[in-house]
Write a structure and sequence with these properties.
By secondary structure, this protein is an alpha+beta fold. About 60% of the residues lie in helices and about 10% in strands.
């Protein structure tokens, strides 16, 4: 609508000026009128062909046609994406042409007045040329620069929006991976903490059934041991679940925040069933250590010093197991000791499940740069195996624990029909205690 309106006004202007030009030059007025209409109507094409329209306005300048045509076409040329050198050249040609026509017209109209200085005519002609040329060109250049700036800002905003979308997608993927890793870590810890004691309980329950009528005293001792193991398993389970529940008034579980235990059952063999809060990142009892990888100073978490007690539990359940320690005994990082302990624990659990009555050898070796553990059992002696379920995650969990610390893990059958589990874990130095001496 704007282009059509401007073209109509320009055609009307050129029509009037064409008739006037025809009268001055002796041309038929009809020819001048048609020529003016055609020239003025070309303004409708200014956006598609700005350079030809400007050249046309320059060509009709001597006939004093198309002032609106020249102004609008110059603005369109400056605002378009035409190179600036072309814009400057055409603007200069328009200005020079306008100045020459204005000078000649003013000189002819004032030639009878001898008092008018020639300098005044020149200055007036220059000002007229600048007034008809400079404003549309400057306005067009400003609109062109502003349009480019807006497009650049829009492209930048679109780019930032795409980057934010990608970052949000990556953050969502990282969160999903973190949740999956956390679920795997919790499942592995639950398996290691609970499965061993429950397996021993099943073994003792089977032994209790066998001796209940023949040896009441031994049956009573087995029942007491079975109850102690059940309480220990319940206590470890409660401690494990306590990590998953945040206490009231605590924002998150970052370093220094307090995690409240979830109370499960009653009585743990030494208390009323409740547990004291544990500070995240500072270690804690058994089940807590495996979740966040923190040390366990001063706690009763799994460590190599408790390996003898672990082997004793399996020995009390009827397993023929021996422990051998090689090298200079020294303290290692909590996660190293915990991982070695869990490997031995899970390996003994597998012996209970799959090789009842087999002779088992547990070997712990302190080396210069690593801690090595090996649990090897011979073939089963034919004793009836306890009906223990197996989820098939024990070896996978052991390998995940060891490789997470940069160690190596190997498991497989031996030549005599037994099974061997070996783990080599880098011997990271133990953290320097900042409080009271740690008691394993």
């Amino acid at each position: 609508m704007l282009d059509a309106t401007l073209a109509a006004v320009s055609a009307l202007e050129c029509f009037v000026e064409g008739v006037s030009f025809a009268q001055k030059t002796g041309i038929a007025p009809g020819v001048g009128a048609v020529f003016g209409l055609l020239v003025g109507s070309t303004l409708l094409l200014r956006r598609r062909w700005p350079i030809p329209i400007v050249l046309l306005s320059i060509a009709v300048t001597p006939a004093q046609l198309g002032y609106l045509l020249g102004v609008v076409s110059l603005y369109t040329l400056a605002a378009s994406e035409v190179p600036r050198r072309i814009t400057a050249t055409l603007a200069g040609m328009t200005g020079v042409g306008t100045m020459i026509v204005a000078f000649i017209q003013m000189r002819d109209s004032l030639r009878l007045d001898n008092n008018t200085p020639l300098l005044v005519i020149v200055i007036t002609s220059v000002l007229m040329a600048l007034g008809l040329t400079a404003p549309p060109v400057l306005l067009g250049l400003y609109v062109r620069a502003r349009r480019r700036l807006v497009e650049s800002l829009r492209e930048r905003a679109d780019g930032l929006e795409r980057e934010l979308t990608l970052l949000a997608e990556k953050a969502t993927e990282r969160a999903e991976r973190a949740r999956a890793d956390e679920r795997t870590r919790i499942a592995r810890e639950m398996h290691d903490v609970v499965a061993h004691r429950v397996s021993l309980m099943v073994v003792h329950a089977a032994a209790l059934k066998a001796v209940a009528l023949k040896d009441p005293e031994k049956a009573s001792a087995s029942a007491e041991l079975l109850g102690n193991m059940g309480r220990q398993a319940l206590n470890e389970l409660r401690q494990m679940l306590g990590v998953l529940r945040t206490g009231p008034g605590v924002n998150g579980a970052g370093a220094g925040s307090t995690l409240a235990f979830t109370e499960v059952g009653s009585g743990t063999g030494g208390g009323s069933g409740s547990a004291a809060p544990v500070t995240a990142g500072s270690g804690g009892p058994d089940g807590l250590d495996g979740l966040d990888g923190s040390a366990a100073p001063g706690g009763d978490g799994p460590c190599l010093a408790r390996l003898e007690a672990l082997v004793g539990e399996s020995r009390a359940a009827g397993m023929r197991v021996a422990l051998t320690v090689e090298g200079e005994i020294r303290a290692c990082a909590a996660q190293v000791e915990r991982t070695a302990y869990r490997v031995v624990q899970e390996a003994l659990t597998n012996v209970h499940k799959h090789a009842s009555g087999a002779r088992t050898q547990v070997r712990l070796a302190y080396r210069a740069t690593e801690v090595a553990v090996r649990v090897e059992n011979g073939p089963s002696d034919g004793s009836p195996a306890a009906a223990l379920p197996s989820g098939g995650h024990g070896l996978v969990g052991m390998k995940e624990r060891v490789t997470a610390l940069g160690g190596g893990f190997v498991a497989g059958h031996t030549a005599d029909g037994g099974f061997r589990v070996s783990a080599m874990i880098p011997a990271l130095p133990a953290a320097v205690p900042t409080g009271p001496p740690a008691v394993c």
